[in-house]
Predict the 3D structure of the following.
Amino acid sequence: MKFTLTKLSLCAAAVLMSSLVHAEKIVNNNITLDEVKAAQQAWGNALINISNAHEAGGVKAAKSVAKKVLDNAYGYNLGAVLFKPTLANGEQTFRTTYDGALSYFVADDKNFAQDSGFALKGWKEYAFNNAAVYINGDVALTMGHVHVTDRSGNKTTVDKTWGFKKAADGSLRIVLHHSSLPYSAN
Amino acid sequence: MKFTLTKLSLCAAAVLMSSLVHAEKIVNNNITLDEVKAAQQAWGNALINISNAHEAGGVKAAKSVAKKVLDNAYGYNLGAVLFKPTLANGEQTFRTTYDGALSYFVADDKNFAQDSGFALKGWKEYAFNNAAVYINGDVALTMGHVHVTDRSGNKTTVDKTWGFKKAADGSLRIVLHHSSLPYSAN
Amino acid sequence: MKFTLTKLSLCAAAVLMSSLVHAEKIVNNNITLDEVKAAQQAWGNALINISNAHEAGGVKAAKSVAKKVLDNAYGYNLGAVLFKPTLANGEQTFRTTYDGALSYFVADDKNFAQDSGFALKGWKEYAFNNAAVYINGDVALTMGHVHVTDRSGNKTTVDKTWGFKKAADGSLRIVLHHSSLPYSAN
Amino acid sequence: MKFTLTKLSLCAAAVLMSSLVHAEKIVNNNITLDEVKAAQQAWGNALINISNAHEAGGVKAAKSVAKKVLDNAYGYNLGAVLFKPTLANGEQTFRTTYDGALSYFVADDKNFAQDSGFALKGWKEYAFNNAAVYINGDVALTMGHVHVTDRSGNKTTVDKTWGFKKAADGSLRIVLHHSSLPYSAN
């Protein structure tokens, strides 16, 4: 009996020690599917936020919100973003620079005269459906449909590809964004 | 004197040994810009090959070449490919399966009745211009214009994004492919 | 009533369509903590297997098992392994080649005369405690103590670092292995 | 003649246009062998710097330099470092925390009573020989010998493994460091 108790005590001590020794630290730089989907949802929320700011405070207010989005959710600080917006073409098809992206969302830049400001179109609803997601280290790629609805109830669907990069602080940034209108056979 | 000479001899021996020790082995899994561009060029070559096979031997011959391209240059063996071809839409917009991709290139599949076979259109020339390339480990992303010219001299330009993954054997596979016609304001 | 039924039918159809659209495919190349720990446990199991094969069938049998371990659990097929075994020194400290690793585990190679065969020492028990794990894409690094016990009950503890690489088929391979006896101040 | 000149002019224009179109932006997050070797050399330089600071200004000066080294060249800011220093053992074998690493290099911490300060030993020379290097994305692993020589000319050789992670700003940080004295058969 006494022996058994002692054994139990020793065992408890061993478990305690073991748990101390086992307190392994984990550093994990990988991106997860949940993080990717949260970033996809955040993109839509940001689009609606810019639209709402525009309605409330005009282009200046919209631009202020758009800058925050680009500063925090896009990877222009990393050198360049592979960005092909839905409604851009010709020599300005690819918006690899911060200024090009900002103009696409809120216009008001004489260097990008074709832009009317995609985020100024009164967007109220947003949804995304992924066809597939590819996860590779700290980068994830998504492809699927994105649906946006404006204040009049008009719905627009685009084919969209995103690439997200996870930063050291755990935040995700868009490093790739290819958006296009559905192909029409006519 | 003798001592100095001995020291020199020892030194020479040490240098020899050191050079042996320095024969470091390098394992490098990273993808390079040159490999990416070679894969981009190979895609165009493959497209022309399928077109030529079609002219010489009909759909059956074209399909045979197309299968080899999909087997060797796309990542369907890895689970799925994020593929949005230029001329697909509706429920069949995204060709995440091998069969969907094959039908897009050479048609002849009743499950994809909308397809006319993109690779069967008599392509003779190919060129690509990257707006930007993003390299991250064994994956690289490209975005830019692709130009193809058919046997009648008609040129088509598309906005194209590719994602390439480098395999353990050093070969590159397309894991992402988003192609779209340029936006037209009209 | 009919209206309600119709609405329900439409709703059911919508759910069906939605579930089809939402059936996103996920390709994930990342290594997980669970996979790493399973590989760490498998290494110890393999060590005991080689020891048992040695007791049952001698060096030849042990070598046969060891080859399977090296073929399946080490990355020599990838070019080289960064392997510093516990009991190797001098010019043969680092076993970057398959033959060097095999000799370390089961000796019987005149090119590595110092080896006595680490896996032939009658190992019966194995345990590992990670101090920390670092996960980066398809590679994970571990550092901690490994404890092995021989048939006489003698326990040996080593300081051990492993690097694991996840292959396209989901299996893990050791690409780095640094093992050393604990430092003794005396 | 004129034709030739015209052709040349056209050609020059084409080259100009081409160079404009081809001005692709490259973002490359991968680590290179040269960066790895520079970081390996920098580690030795830092060790000598701490030793020199110690000789000139005592432990306080040495600690100040050591902190800068840990702040800039180790990954403690990323969560933890897998660090097994040469002369540490028992419960303090693994220095996964900043304080544990600092004490190993310059001692002067009552929580790590066993430490005598590895960087205070008057190191004057440093060299490294890699047996192998493994490069995977933004992480590289090295294994080989490191030689250090103190002010009296005594040379110490250790078996050393490093893991380096490249940060978004292009700098490299040590996330893994396993150092051990050569095995002695006696």
